[in-house]
C-alpha cells in the first residue's frame, strides 16, 4: 500500500512527474525541492484581499484568493481556485493543487497537497503528502522530526522500512479524515478513506478504509449542588 498509485490518485495532481520512479510514495519528498526549483515560474494570477507577502519564486493560479496577512515565502507552486486565508504561512518547497484550502494560522513546509485538500484551521504540515480530498480537522499537527537522531522509520507488519529521510511526517491517502487536535507522528501512513479520531496521537500505518480511535473510557457522574445558607 505504499506505492504512489496505491494510496494517491495520481490523476489529481499536475505534478505526476514528481512521483515517477518512486518505489514508495514518500520518495517524492526527496525530489521535491529540485522539482519545484526547476519548474516554478514567477507569476501571480491570483487576487489578494488586503495585504499579503509573496516571495519571488512563487506561481499562483487564476481564481485563487490570498487573504490579508498571509506569507508565501516560496519557492512554491499554488494551483487554481484555492483559498489561502488570513495569516497562513507557506514556507519553502510547497506544492498546493487546485481547489485547496489553507486556513487561518496554518503552516506548510516542504509538502505536496493534491487537488481539493483542506487544511483549514491552525494546522502544521511538515514534509508530507496529502492525497485528493484529504481533510485535517482544526488543530491537527503533522510532526516531521523524531525526538531522537536518525531517519524516520515506517513500521509495517513486523518490518521496519527506513525511509532515508531525516524529516518525514505523513502520507495521507485520498479522502482520509484526521480529527481535530490529532497528532500524526513522524512516519505515519494513513490509507485512503481512513479516519483518525480527534485528540489521538497516531504513529504508524492505518490501512485503507479503517478507523483509529481512543479506547479510553469516559465516566459520567452526577453533579451535586451544594447550597450555601446564611450564617
Structure explained in plain terms:
- This protein has helices at 4-7, 28-39; strands at residues 43-44, 47-49, 53-54, 58-60, 65-67, 71-72, 76-78, 83-84, 89-90, 94-96, 101-104, 107-109, 111-113, 118-121, 124-126, 129-130, 135-136, 141-142, 153-156, 159-162, 170-172, 177-178, 183-184, 188-190, 195-196, 201-202, 205-206, 211-212.
- β19 and β20 form a beta hairpin.
- It has a 9-stranded parallel sheet, covered by helices on one side.
- The chain has a single domain, classed as 3 Solenoid (UDP N-Acetylglucosamine Acyltransferase, domain 1).
- Helices cover 7% and strands 32% of the residues.
Write the layout of secondary structure elements.
Layout (H helix, E strand, L loop, with lengths): L3 H4 L20 H12 L3 E2 L2 E3 L3 E2 L3 E3 L4 E3 L3 E2 L3 E3 L4 E2 L4 E2 L3 E3 L4 E4 L2 E3 L1 E3 L4 E4 L2 E3 L2 E2 L4 E2 L4 E2 L10 E4 L2 E4 L7 E3 L4 E2 L4 E2 L3 E3 L4 E2 L4 E2 L2 E2 L4 E2 L19
Parallel strand pairs: 1-4, 2-5, 3-6, 4-7, 5-8, 6-9, 7-10, 8-11, 9-12, 10-13, 11-14, 12-15, 13-16, 15-18, 16-21, 17-22, 18-23, 21-24, 22-25, 23-26, 24-27, 25-28
Antiparallel strand pairs: 19-20
